[in-house]
Structures are given as structure tokens and as C-alpha cells.
Design goal:
Chain A: This is LEM domain-containing protein. Chain A: It comes from Gadus morhua (Atlantic cod). Chain A: InterPro entries: LEM/LEM-like_dom_sf (IPR011015), LEM_dom (IPR003887), LEM_domain (IPR051656). The structure holds two protein chains of two kinds. Helix content of chain A is about 65%, strand content about 0%. Chain A is an all-alpha fold. The longest helix of chain A is centred in the last third of the chain and has 22 residues. About 20% of the residues of chain A have low confidence. Helices cover about 60% and strands about 0% of the residues of chain B. In chain B, helix 1 packs parallel to helix 5 and helix 4 crosses helix 5. The longest helix of chain B has 18 residues. Chain B is globular and about 25 Å long. The chains are: A mainly alpha, B mainly alpha. At the A-B interface, helix 2 of A face helix 4 of B.
């Protein structure tokens, strides 16, 4: 493909339309800007554009950092556990395939189990520690288990419910203090 | 939207005539120098570029960034200033 600067104005205009870039007339002052835009668009297309869900991208970035840190401190609370289980799953998948299939595996495997599997991934958290080849095997277990899609993971709901229940219990205890006085010592 | 600066208000209040490029909101001395070096020595030349880019915000912002390395705020201020000027006078 010849360099962009060799193309005529019409060709640049056609390329911009092809990439869906809104543009004005191609004049001296605008040409370099449009050439840059086309180059960016070509670069993005070549990179196998990620699916519209931007969370994938962010998770991919997080995954990369986790791989480089390689410090699975699993007892760091739920939030981290989610991410680790995620990275474990994705890392294993990445292990299997690279580059272009990389995108395919991402789009095929991750998407629906993505949100769901966070709370299922207890087996995965163990496997992330070892990063062994066993991970692909373990990964396959939660993947088919696509249940309903929840915005808030199940365990979070249970936890919230428990907290509310305990809180209500204390409230009721305090309200009963007129005749039972559970917090006062009996003589 | 954040409130507009005095520079913005001054610029959009009247036809720009032969005002220098530093009269534009968001364009200070440093950016103004860079624009002048590229040939955009008067505000109306930048206006011309703005119009050639069909008054599109994204294109204009990108162009500003490429031409004089304006940051996001400066880009926004300049774009807003020119757009409002056009709304009144064009």
C-alpha cells in the first residue's frame, strides 16, 4: 500500500469515508490531520478491534499488570479475588492461543461467563497461584456453567442481606430494652 | 459547562477583525507562538481552519493538539470561543 502522502485528495477522502471519519475538504492545512486519522484507524483495525464492551479492555489491562506482578495474595478480600480469578481464566486462555485467535477466544469464551463467573471462581483462585497448565482444565469447569447474568455477584447479595439482618437484630434488641434489658446485668 | 473566561467573553463580544491569535480563549503566549510559526498568525486564520474542519469539535481539537500541542482544556476553550463567535457573527 502506497504511503498516504502519495494519494490524491479524492483517495484520502474516500479512505476517510471508508473508516467512517467525519471530515471536511482536504486542503493543505487539513491534509496531515486526516492522514494521521487514517493511520490511527488502520492501526486500530489491524489490532482486531475489541468488542464494544469497554470493560474487556480494562480487564485485559488489569490482567497484564497482574501477570507482571505475579503476586497472588488471595486473601486480600473479595475484590481482588474477583480480579484474580478473572486473570487466571483469561491468562489460561491466552496461554492457549495468541494474537488473532486471541481475539476470538476472548469474544467466544469470556463474554457471558465473564460477569457470572466471578463468584464461581473459587477453584480458579487456587489455580491462579500456581499458574500451571492445569488452569485450562479447571477453567473449562466454570465456563459452561453460565447461569443468570447478575449485575451484583451473588455472594455480595448474601453478604448485604446478612449485614442488614444483623443490623435489624440489634435494633430490635435495643427496642426491647424496656422489659428485658439484654445489655444490663442482672443483679 | 464551566463558566467562560473573560478572554472568551471579550472575543465573542465583537467581530474579530485583525485580532492576534493570542486573543482566542485557551491560546496563550506559548501556544500563540507555535501557531504563528505554523502560519496561523491571526485569529481569523484559525477561524478559517475551524470552518474548513466544518466546525467539528473532535477534528478541531485534534488539529489544535497536533499543531500547537494544546491540552484538553485549551482545546475546549478555543473551540468554545470560536463556536460561539460563529454563532453570533457568521
Amino acid at each position: 500500500m502506497s504511503t498516504l502522502s502519495n494519494k490524491s485528495d479524492q483517495e484520502i477522502s474516500a479512505l476517510l469515508d471508508e473508516y467512517g471519519i467525519k471530515h471536511g475538504p482536504i486542503v493543505d492545512s487539513t491534509r496531515s490531520l486526516y492522514e494521521k486519522k487514517i493511520q490511527q484507524a488502520m492501526g486500530n483495525k489491524g489490532k482486531a478491534k475489541p468488542s464494544s464492551d469497554k470493560t474487556y479492555y480494562r480487564e485485559e489491562e488489569e490482567e497484564v499488570t497482574y501477570l507482571s506482578y505475579r503476586s497472588p495474595s488471595m486473601s486480600e478480600g473479595y475484590g481482588d479475588r474477583e480480579q484474580y480469578s478473572h486473570s487466571g481464566q483469561e491468562y489460561a486462555q491466552r496461554n492457549l492461543q495468541d494474537e488473532n485467535p486471541y481475539l476470538r477466544s476472548r469474544s467466544e469464551v469470556y463474554r457471558s461467563p465473564d460477569v457470572v463467573d466471578k463468584h464461581y471462581d473459587t477453584p480458579l483462585t487456587y489455580s491462579t497461584a500456581s499458574y500451571s497448565n492445569a488452569t485450562p482444565v479447571k477453567c473449562s469447569v466454570p465456563v459452561p456453567e453460565e447461569k443468570s447474568h447478575r449485575l451484583i455477584p451473588l455472594w455480595v447479595q448474601f453478604l448485604v442481606f446478612l449485614i442488614v439482618a444483623v443490623f435489624l437484630y440489634f435494633v430490635i434488641c435495643n427496642m426491647e430494652s424496656t422489659h428485658s434489658e439484654p445489655f444490663k446485668q442482672v443483679k | 459547562m464551566s463558566s467562560t473566561s473573560q478572554k472568551h467573553k471579550d472575543f465573542v463580544a465583537e467581530p474579530m477583525g485583525e485580532k492576534k491569535v493570542t486573543a482566542l480563549a485557551g491560546i496563550g503566549d506559548a501556544l500563540g507562538k507555535r501557531l504563528e510559526d505554523k502560519g496561523f498568525d491571526k485569529a481569523y486564520v484559525v477561524l478559517g481552519q475551524f470552518l474548513v474542519l466544518k466546525k467539528d469539535e473532535e477534528l478541531f481539537r485534534d488539529w489544535l493538539k497536533d499543531t500547537c500541542s494544546a491540552n484538553s482544556k485549551q482545546q475546549g476553550d478555543c473551540y468554545g470561543c470560536l463556536r460561539e463567535w460563529c454563532d453570533s457573527f457568521l
